From TrEMBL:
It comes from the Eukaryota. Residues 1-144 form the Reverse transcriptase domain. The lineage of its organism: Eukaryota, Metazoa, Chordata, Craniata, Vertebrata. SUPFAM superfamilies: DNA/RNA polymerases. InterPro entries: DNA/RNA_pol_sf (IPR043502), RT_dom (IPR000477). This is Reverse transcriptase domain-containing protein. Coiled coil: none annotated.
Length: 144
């Protein structure tokens, strides 16, 4: 959270809020002994979506820190959105690389070729592993 500019005091409060969290597993009507929860966020916590989003953004930044893979996007901000001829001009046209799109806990990776997509997936999978995340292959789709 400090990488995103969160004050130290806020980080301490969030840590203290999650310290000492325990869970039990319920199986066949029997509850297990309580065990400590050392990662994740509390179920139903109003901070959970924001904390997850920050962590996921940090993971993506780590995964693609030296990568230019993505879809190049040219745009202007002068209010002439649908005038495609204006995008041909050299002046006032900005470019960015659209590498990923996030919504809640879903992520799309964008690439210009199959090879770039494979390279992106390899980096993404390694970063997920480093951050303790799992890719749900049943919900994963590749479109080209």
């Amino acid at each position: 959270m400090s990488k995103f500019g969160c004050p130290d005091r806020f980080i301490l409060i969030v840590r203290q809020f999650h310290d000492g969290t325990a869970a039990r597993v319920l199986s066949k009507g029997e509850a297990s002994e309580a065990f400590p929860v050392t990662n994740g966020v509390k179920q139903g916590c109003v901070l959970a979506p924001t904390l997850f989003s920050m962590m996921f953004s940090a993971m993506l930044s780590d995964a693609f820190q030296n990568s230019s893979v993505g879809v190049n996007l040219r745009y202007r901000t002068d209010g002439k959105l649908f005038n495609l001829q204006r995008l041909q001009a050299v002046t006032k046209v900005k470019e960015t690389v659209l590498r990923d799109l996030l919504f809640a806990d879903d992520c799309t990776l964008n690439a210009g070729s199959e090879q770039e997509m494979q390279a992106s997936m390899d980096k993404f999978a390694a970063a997920c592993d480093n951050f303790g995340l799992f890719i749900n292959t049943k919900k994963t789709e590749v479109m080209y």
